Amino acid sequence: MTTRKKLEGNGLWESSRMMLPEHKESIIRRQLEEGRKVKPTLDAQEMELIEHALAESFYDHRTITLRLYDEYEEVERTGVVTIVLTHRREIKLTTGPGEWEWIRIDDILSAGVS
Amino acid sequence: MKASKRVIMLADCQSFYASVEKAEHPEYQDRPLVVAGDPERRSGIVLAACPKAKEKGVKTAERLGEAMAKCPELVVIKPRMQRYIDVSMKITDIYKSFTDLVEPYSIDEQFLDVTGSLHLYGCTPEELARMIQNYVQEATGVYTRFGIADSKILAKMACDNYGKKSPSGIYTLSKDHLDGTLWKLPVSDMFMAGSRMTRHFMAMGLPTIGSVARTPLAKLKQMMRRKFGRNSDIQAELYWRIANGIDDSPVRPGTHQVDPKSVGHMMTLPRDYGRLEEIKVVLLELTELVCQRCRGLGFMGHVVSVHCTGADFDRPSGFSRQMKMDDPSNVTNQVYRWACRLLEKHWDGLPVRQVGISLSQLTPDQEYQLSLFDMDREKWMALERTTDALKRKYGDAIIIRAVSMTEAGQALDRSTKIGGHYR
User: Fold this and answer.
1) Which of 3.60.15.10, 2.60.120.260, 1.10.10.60, 2.30.30.100 is the CATH number of A44-113?
2) For A15-30, what is each residue's pLDDT tens digit?
3) Which residue of chain B has the CA closest to A6?
4) Cβ proximity of B208 and B198 under 8 Å
């Protein structure tokens, strides 16, 4: 059956191409690798801002949004800091009733009190 | 900014597998050479023939025996599919050094959109194509041919119909002069027009690409409806656009990253399987592969389809049936149970030459319903996580099921192949 999709976007070529699954997987893996990021070095001021925001959230129970480093794609988490483990450099971010996540302070790229 | 015309290239590698082998075996440089499947199995056909072999009348896809008869001094090389994939990716990298918009269309054909990068080289599209052609030749020993146009469809047809035949291997097809070029060609030279469709076009009184292009779309739809029924409108529009070179599809590098609609595997057996137990062995092996791939992609399937083709070419038999499982799954044993039900119900008892299985209606496997009757699921999943990791690290043959060691088993043989040919 020929469907409408062949006439739209890249449909003609996506429906007619001949790709070995192994070839396709290599291409996808390569593209993933190319998207890989190194962790940026934060300057002292940014670090201070982050610490400030974490402290504010911890003491005043304010909701904060954290941008976290990931090799492939940055992630965002929103919640309240409920525990700070200074020696392990980790915080516990409570994201909802009964839900939390341990986050390494070193992974935080920016923090903002919402 | 003035909207400028796009500059799209379709680059095609000449006799790709054979060229790769010739580059790596300089001693065969001046001899006719083919890459051919294993003669002992049914895949004993010519996959690629070098220009010297083609001169002797050897054709792609013919039986190795026939090719040898035409050209007794033929050098025959077993395919090495992984190597060809690697070289293809290397060529992609070369193209990417000229533009970031590169879309592989098959192992030996890729689209390049150089609209935005052409000015960096201060040359014409043809000169740029020549530069890329030399670069690829130097780096890999593969000769590439180029079709250049303002759309993918014209670039493709420029390459197939002119670039491959021109001494420079480069041809630009201008949309403004189609009546003096493409439209004169027989309709069989049109992209997507196979032998069956060509016959239909001839019967409709449309012998050339131009005659299809010049038929008003409404009329072409009417003509095709008469032949193929009411549902042929889209097909009519597709051919009409191809003939007129109308195609605004982008060159999309991320095109392969879409979530699959289904995951399936199929194989042609080395001999006909006539007993249920034998077919079940292959079915289990294929189920394992499909589930393994699903797990790797992070999907579970809800619908399982099983496909069998009978062995007798003249009296086609077999079936292709699907069934919805109680719950979505990617656990081999679970999926296999359902696949067996399909096989047992629909197999007609005649010898089988081809078996396939696929999973569709895919959902992410991050969360799943706990099934009351399947307490072992967690255990199975842990086991499969371990076997998958082993296979990823050491290859599919590192751990296999006991039935795969029986005479019917194909898993070991299959683990040495890609696309049915040797790795």
Assistant:
1) 2.30.30.100
2) 889 888 889 888 887 8
3) B238
4) no
